[in-house]
Design goal:
CATH topology of the largest domain: Creatine Amidinohydrolase
Distance between the termini: 21 Å
CATH architecture of the largest domain: Alpha-Beta Complex
Strand order of the largest sheet: 8-7-6-3-9
Radius of gyration: 26 Å
Largest sheet: 5 strands, mixed
Strand content: 5-15%
Number of helices: 15
């Protein structure tokens, strides 16, 4: 990237400095700009409007704002999108708006803030956005973090209102608009915008807002389920890309696999929904292995846990455990088939009115019985699954399900009795992902199984009569996996349109 001037802060928030007829103050640690140069740089530019159609979710986001307003009657709700975050020194992470903000607006602008007014007030909501730093001001070329000459055009007030279907106001006006409101009537999502955290006094309503948003987001509408299906379909194509790349990955690091999948995520979607886990061999026994620096070896298993995040930020979360060679060994297949049976038990337990933990209980019972049959556990499921001494957990630490949506672990602020200890309902989307992990140095495990880690994860939506597996097009049966891999390896790898 170009580094000149990259550390200079936004002139809008720089310390005050006098200007003169000869010089324009450009920001902390920056020399002043000669006024003739500024005048030269800011003239003779054609208009550069951003002409976009309204976002397809506009009607749905309006209904969502009505729903959250009804949950906190009489309160003014302040929901920030968040700002840029420094990755290292003068470089930022790629921006992604806060999930609750996006759910309420479909807006992906940095430093935006949504204010939802109480019932009966007009407008029903205001979207505060940064004004354009275009060629009407020196900011467009003098500010490397936000200026349009550096980072491209962004929507202004009119463009944002047209795109998101919400009345807009300048971001710099927000704090002034909040001053006259009773502090007790203001609630916000904290941790996204330091300016908002400072301007809105903390109160119990902040936690209530976060909880209410998570609980409203539990049930996905048709638009959301379609976006999740799109993300899953892109993810399946990413898994196909990985299989085709396996012959060239052997002897190299797991990052080859990560990179191949992540290319699909950026080519078709917005990004990956979380850090890709590309775990080969005994690394598959490490639940959140994201270093991906191990060597890919023929004969090992690859545990690939990955998901594409679509352009509307809904993410897939899928895991397959695949033989690098294309064929399972006998011990690998034996453990794989046990995990597959546990997953099927989990699928069978998903239905409206069932406890959220029902898939977990069903899958864990199959795993515990299988561990007993293998001689690894010395007691049956009735003993091994006791909460005071869950013996099975040595080999399967994690739960079998979590909610899925805009966040890979969605709706995390929902109350326990609504989520973890609640019941499933039509429109809930969750994962079913049992796994067994036999550490290479675990002496309680027969030697032929040590170093084997298997997880099978699919995304399901709760339907009237059970569930639909969104990722069902990706093979799960070991025979089907071997045939699928052989078919892919017989065809040349795609160039992804590049």
């Amino acid at each position: 990237m170009t580094t000149d001037d990259a550390t200079y802060p936004d002139p809008d928030v720089s310390e005050d400095q006098p200007e003169s007829e000869h010089w324009v103050w450009a920001g902390t640690h920056r020399p002043p700009l000669p006024r003739p140069f500024v005048e030269y740089m800011t003239r003779d530019w054609a208009d550069h409007p951003i002409d976009e159609a309204p976002h397809p979710a506009v009607e749905r986001t309006s209904a969502r704002r009505d729903a959250i307003r009804s949950k906190l009657e009489g309160k003014t709700l302040v929901v920030p999108s968040g700002g840029l975050k420094v990755r290292a020194n003068d470089t930022d992470f790629r921006f992604r708006p806060g999930s609750d903000f996006f759910w309420l607006t479909a807006c992906d602008d940095v430093d935006a803030v949504l204010v939802v007014n109480p019932t009966g007030q007009t407008p029903e909501a205001t979207l505060y956005v940064e004004e354009r730093r275009d060629a009407t001001s020196h900011r467009f070329f003098s500010n490397a973090r936000y200026g349009e000459a550096w980072v491209g055009a962004r929507r202004g007030l009119e463009e944002a209102a047209r795109r998101w279907g919400i009345p807009t106001a300048p971001r710099d006006q927000l704090e002034k608009d909040l001053v006259g409101l009773p502090p007790a009537d203001l609630v916000t999502l904290r941790g996204y915008d330091a300016r908002i955290d400072g301007a809105v006094p903390a109160n119990d309503g902040d936690e209530e807002l976060a909880t209410a948003l998570s609980e409203l987001r539990l049930t996905k509408d048709d638009f959301e389920i379609d976006r999740l299906q799109e993300a899953v379909d892109m993810t399946i194509r990413g898994f196909e890309d990985v299989v085709r790349s396996l012959p060239t990955a052997i002897g190299r690091t797991e990052r080859v696999i990560e990179g191949v999948f992540n290319l699909r995520a950026r080519y078709e979607g917005n990004d990956v929904g979380y850090s890709t886990i590309a775990a080969v061999g005994s690394h598959a026994t490490i639940l959140h292995w994201t270093r991906n620096d191990g060597v890919v070896r023929d004969g090992d298993l690859l545990l690939l846990d990955a998901g594409v995040e679509g352009h509307d930020l809904y993410t897939a979360d899928v895991t397959r455990t695949l033989p690098v060679s294309g064929t399972f060994s006998a011990p690998q297949r034996e453990i794989y088939e046990l995990v597959l049976a546990a997953q099927q038990a989990g699928f069978d337990a998903v239905r409206p009115g069932a406890e959220f933990l029902a898939p977990n209980s069903a899958a864990k019972r199959v795993l515990a019985q299988g561990l007993f049959d293998l001689g690894i556990l010395k007691v049956g499921p009735d003993v091994a699954l006791r909460t005071e001494l869950p013996l099975h957990a040595r080999y399967t630490l994690h739960g079998v399900s979590h909610m899925l949506g805009i966040d890979v672990h969605d709706c995390s602020h929902a109350r326990e009795h609504v989520y973890y200890k609640g019941t499933l309902d039509v429109g809930f989307v969750l994962t079913v992902e049992p796994g067994l992990y036999f550490q290479p140095d675990d002496l309680t495990v027969p030697e032929q199984y040590r170093g084997i880690g298997v997880r099978i994860e699919d995304d399901v939506v709760v339907t009237e009569d059970g569930c639909r597996v969104l990722s069902g097009a990706l093979p799960r049966d070991p025979d089907e996996i071997e045939a699928w891999m052989a078919g892919l390896l017989a065809r040349p790898a795609p160039n992804l349109g590049l």
